[in-house]
């Protein structure tokens, strides 16, 4: 009898949690964490390309020290500002991370523009390969960010809507800060950066 009662109570509790949105909230929270991991993965891939890129550029433009210093400082800042999935509820931490990555984007843009002044650099096969890798990474960053933005929107909607907002309140689940953009179009269209090949290439900030 006790066993049947336990099973009945467990089943009722499970159905209750499912009906009040608990399971949906948990699933969406996990999805945002997974989406964030992909964002971090792509930003790390970009950071890993930087030393090789700087090394190649220095061979042809070793007196561009101001640009190299800017890239080095940006990469150091990116390395020092880490944001784990557990810290994604902190708006200030999110802004610091976004600012650091924006600084890296700006520094890389200036580095790539150096090639305009050095035809031999533009013709270097290794530089061209790194340029393609960087462009591809920037595109993947944009895609990963877009996925994260949409997953956070879904989660935040569930957290705020009735009756799931009551469940979120009980379990301490709050809206997550998202990537800030100046306008909605920036979510799907990245800022333009000149990579020194006379074509417009999108790059995420």
Can you walk through the features of this model?
With 205 residues, the protein is an all-alpha fold. It has a single domain, classed as LemA-like domain (de novo design (two linked rop proteins)). It has 7 helices and 2 strands; from the N terminus they run H-H-H-H-H-H-H-E-E. The chain has a two-stranded antiparallel sheet with strand order 1-2. The longest helix has 39 residues. The relative contact order is 0.15.
Can you tag this structure with a few keywords?
mainly alpha; de novo design (two linked rop proteins); two-stranded antiparallel ribbon; 2 strands; 3% strand; disordered N terminus; disordered C terminus; LemA family protein
Describe the sheet with the most strands. Answer: 2 strands, antiparallel
Number of strands: 2
- Helix-strand makeup class: mainly alpha
| Count of the separate structural domains | 1
Strand order of the largest sheet: 1-2
Fraction of helical residues: over 70%
Q: Tell me the overall shape.
A: elongated
In short:
One of its GO terms (cellular component) is membrane. With 205 residues, this protein is mainly α.
Helix and strand topology:
Blueprint lengths: L1 H18 L2 H39 L4 H16 L10 H23 L5 H5 L1 H36 L3 H7 L21 E3 L5 E3 L3
Helix pairs in contact: 2-3, 2-4, 2-6, 3-4
